Amino acid sequence: MDFAGLILAGGEGTRWGGPKAWAKLPNGRTFLEVCAETLRGAGARPIMATLPPGASNPGLHALVTVTLPEPGLDMFASLVIGLGRLMEHPDWRIVTILPVDHPLVSPSTVTDLANATARAAIPSFNGKHGHPVCLERSVVENIVDGTLTGPTLREVLRSVDAVDVAVDDPGVTTNCNTPEALATALENLR
Length: 190
Known about the structure:
Blueprint: E1 3-8, H1 31-42, E2 47-51, E3 63-67, H2 75-86, E4 94-99, H3 107-114, E5 120-125, E6 128-129, E7 133-136, H4 137-144, H5 153-159, E8 163-166, H6 179-188
Parallel strand pairs: 1-2, 1-4, 2-3, 5-8
Antiparallel strand pairs: 4-7, 5-6, 5-7
Helix pairs in contact: 1-3, 2-4
């Protein structure tokens, strides 16, 4: 399978108390580490992550980091920067975009999305949309060149008629954007 992965981890994490890339699961592993392993376990190559300005490279195996040029960029601006760097790599046809605050997604979900035959794919669990999403390279090209301008990824997905992919993975709808949300999610997954 020729697909890439992009982890959106460039936010300031104000609700968490710091960048969520460095937030930790109870086992001590960072959200960024777990998201990279999820993408790698599904077969994504290359894997990139946007990081906040001034962040140091975490030194994770096979992870290319893209430090954002300034703080306070919205998610779509971060997405455009990450996808722009990813376009420098010619050997992929689909990218899986995983926000770092979704560290509970399984590799099999990523594989299911990457195998969808569509310009874009969105996972749904019990009828609710979630993350990550997959985009074909042609959609990425249009985002990077400004043809598809958002202002959010949701609008892009609507404009390219993204398909829903039903998955049996509550991690896709589990947004761990606060310590309390993570604690609730882990309790619900027991």
